[in-house]
Amino acid sequence: MGEQTSKTIFPEQTGDYTLSIRLRNDGCYFSISNPKINNSYTGQNIIFSPSGNTPLQSIEEMVYNHPVLLKKFQKTYIIIQSSRFTFVPKSIEPEKDKLNVYYDFCFPSHTDKILCNEWKRNGLYNLFGVDKDIYAFLKRTFDTPLFLHQLTPLCEYFFGRSQIGNNSKMYVHLQKGWIDIACFNKTGLLFANSFEYGDIHDAAYYILNVWEQQGFNQEKDELQLTGDKGPRQTITRIAQEYIRQVMPSIFPPQLFKLGKETLEAPFDLMVIPLCEL
Question: 0.90 cut: is pTM over it?
Answer without folding.
Answer: yes
